[in-house]
Amino acid sequence: MSRYTPPEQSKAGQVFDIAVVVVAIFVALWLPLKLGLAGAAKSIDALDAKTWEALGQNPTMASIWEKLGYTPETAHDVIQNRFHYIIDWPTLIIMAVVLIGYFVFLFRASDREYRDVINEKFDDK
Amino acid sequence: MTVAVESTGTAVNGDRVSLLRVLGPAHVWALGVGIVLVGEFTGWNFSADKGGTLAALIVCWVVGLLYTSVAMIDSEVTSTVAAAGGQYAQAKHIVGPLMAFNVALFLVFAYTMLEVSDAILLGDTIVAKAGVDGLTHNSFIAATIVVLAWLNYRGVLMTLNVNFVITAIAYVSIVILFFSVSPWTQGAVLKLNELVTPGNALPYGWIGVIAAFQFGIWYYLGIEGTTQAAEEVRSPARSLPYGTMAGMITLLIAAAMTWYVCASLMPWEYLGITPYPLWDAGKLTGSPLLENLLFIATLLAAIASANGCINDAARAWFSLGRDRYLPSWFSAVHPKYRTPYRSILFLLPIALAFAFIADLNQAITFSILSGVLQYTFMSINIMMFRKKWPLGTIRRGYTHPFHPLPAIVLFCLCVVTFFAIFLGFGSQLSAMVAFYFLISVWFHFYRYKFVRRGDQFTMPWPKPQGY
Fold first, then answer.
1. CA 20 to 30 Å from A93, out of B44, B252, B285, B390?
2. Looking at domain B19-456, what is its CATH homologous superfamily?
3. How many other C-beta atoms lie within 10 A of the C-beta of residue B81?
């Protein structure tokens, strides 16, 4: 197999490639944070009666909350802010397919590239 | 034993300048534990938020099993492929360039987002301690990231010597806290029976235990970073497995002590949301000495972790430049300090940008996601490694036992963790996978043309079986 000689990349080309990576990082990862689309999916189950008992706290727990500077009113939003684990099956299936697709692409494309590497490396000898 | 080490470096005035081989097993331990120990000071407790206090304990041990598998697998491959970039170099030799490109990005983002989390923790802790109205964490975040980047710019030995000392202090503080609260008696200080009751131990049931896997990863995330220093370790085949395994044992003990003390001092709803559970535990003992000790230890753990993260992320990025997976401009080694200085400087503003807008749990989730993608790769990688070069065909620095059981356990636990992240943080999972998919397409169909094919394989091994 003939040895592959990659093209030399100009300085402008290098700058452009760095810019592509930076843009990908900020669009895919930074922007969802900035737009508030990422983070924990929780919501507050509000209670009418804001007492330690209603919040499910025994006297030991209540004394610790108070030591930490909380009252039943201020602790309400902390205690009642809960996850609601309802599995959205279509979303889960789509996510699983995307994740599996990503890994399949990764291993198949890598294998094609790897064969180039091995052929060049060992056919030179 | 065949332990080949890639020569690396940059030409300065006609001379080859390479990374310095100055590190021993203690530095490897400090690099691994230094990065990870912050997980005891923040982050692990978010698993209590997702599943309750008992779920946090269950995942502490089960995820410990995941990381034991990681350490076993990593020790075998790294002791045989001892090159800067760690898992990146492994992927390059075992799977192929595109996988190596992705693995390097997993490393960079796992560590950069961990560094971001560390800086946020440090800023929030100082602001809370100061108790001054209007004081924000931004200036503390900026100072942490910039000063530590400068330390890394100046040299790896100094950086890891600093890490060794501050990691040891932070670890000792956990041990002091544990023995100060009379862990053998309940009721005096610790009140586990009254705080963790049959009614609230698993508030979401077993689905909460699964969901808690996400932040359970945080107990140990980054221990595999020991391999990043492979080119700077004096004896990689001995130091890397020894330092990694010793680090894992250290962390398992710290995690168990941390859970026991914190679960016995605060209700799960508070434990699940506090940014600094160990500092809070120190406060709740009523001892000003413990409170101040844990305050300082929280800061030190965050500094040690961020320090190690900058070291590791920059080396992974440096490796990408050296192999032309990214512009070769990044592959420069500083002529005086012998550090990958351009990579350190490039990642600095990215860390700052995320630190200023992300919440602690968001930054941690990005880091965890990259980590879990990497562990998924590792479970498949070891299978391919054993298949392409069966035992006896090349000499390994270390051969891990019970193969393929650790790889199967690791893969299954990764699948569970992906599902855990989907439960509550699905949008971040989508964003991260979209990023890696797009950047992979870009690499495979465009950037790969700049890569020298045969040069990607530098180990003195025979041709892999099946090729």
1. B44
2. Amino acid/polyamine transporter I (1.20.1740.10)
3. 30
